[in-house]
TrEMBL record:
Transmembrane segments: none annotated. Residues 311-322 have a biased composition (Basic and acidic residues). The keyword Ribosomal protein does not apply. Keywords: Coiled coil. Residues 47-68, 302-336 are annotated as: Disordered. Residues 239-266 form a coiled coil. This is AB hydrolase-1 domain-containing protein. The lineage of its organism: Eukaryota, Fungi, Dikarya, Ascomycota, Pezizomycotina. The keyword tRNA-binding does not apply. Signal peptide: none annotated. Gene3D superfamilies: alpha/beta hydrolase. InterPro entries: AB_hydrolase_fold.
Amino acid sequence: MATALFRRPLSSAFSSGAASSNTKNKLNRNGVASPNCTASFIHTTSAMSSAAPSQPAPDRDSQTVTLPDGRTLGFAEYGAPEGAPVIYFHGFPSNRLEGQAMDKSAKRHKVRLLCLDRPGYGLSTLQPGRRMLDWPDDVMTFASTQNLSKFGVLGGSGGGPYVLACASKLPAGVLTHAGVMCGGGAFDRASRVAGVVPRRSRVTAWFATYWPSALRVMVAGLAGTIQWVVRTRMVSRWIDNWFAAMDKKEAERKTEEKQKKEAAKAKAIAVADTHSEGSIAGSDFEEVAAVAASVESLSTVATTKPGSTKAADDDVHDVHEVDPEDEEDGEPKRSIPERREAMFRALFHTFAQGAEPTVQDAQVLCSDLGFRFEDITYDPVTFWHGDQDTNTPLPWIQQITDRMPHAVLKVYPGESHYSLVGHIDEIVAYFSPKASEAGEKTAPEDAEGK
């Protein structure tokens, strides 16, 4: 996701300009600074690494394309190479490697995740004078280099405003989905008057707007401090212990879920066995369909919402499918030291080109939006947010969703900005081909919508 340093608003417009570009390591395509944020930054990147035991080959996570103006745009690819394409926008400040947290889930749900470095971060060239208005252009150009006529967009934290920029300005029919997880809020008058902008973000916005040189010094100092602190034995030990605790918690969760799944499957099969003989013997096909529907509702691999239809044979078969989480993905789980080093790589890569990209990103996110939330016609734009998020408090994001005509907000009780990472699998599943076919794009379960 992103750091606690800053969570931002938006602004954007799309001016057409799909241009030819050169792609490095191109695979086969299917068309388809707050001075006190150090601990939060470490925590966030730790969560990312913990959620991603698999690690793609370097050539997949370090690719580039050349844009029409000669700039380089870096990107990483995770998940299923032939899956449904989703372009991911990282948080603030961060980089494309943030997407590794979703690699395993993307594979499981057949999603091809393409994570872009914004200008100046990671492998991407800094773009002087950049504004939010420019981002949809870069996204469309990138999509053309990957032969994507349609794709979804997902943004984490500070990447959320960039999703809204695309939802506002990209041509109709291009986006298949638009989603924001723990997204940043707006800095417009309505949010300021409502008093929902966190103090930390207000301070960062003030420096970015009125004293960027000071912010530049703070970011540079912060980056240097982080690189020194995380390499100390004490912090390394703390990180390793945190990984171990997360592994234990995840193992307990999987054990509990597996027991529930097995009980549900056993019950569904028992119901099917009880009814099938009499129903089939009497040619009561409606009864067979009803039993199949009950099996579907209990199946752990089903994604169909109540009321949606599916072939009865498929529904019954779902009960006997292998739980995807129990399948080997062909990649051994990395050791804790390996995951720690992967975390450090993602952490340090954000500042590979110095402090300027972070300062510029803050300025872009603080600038005038260029569009109104009320004018975003894309339907729906889905938001996932924890009600205990202190980096981007829920009332802040509600200042946006309440003004959008087609916003769908799913709130997670008890979850914070960082613990929402525990729901990544559910979020990625929203973009899967199976969920789209089942009609889940329009209304995630337990979501608030208009």
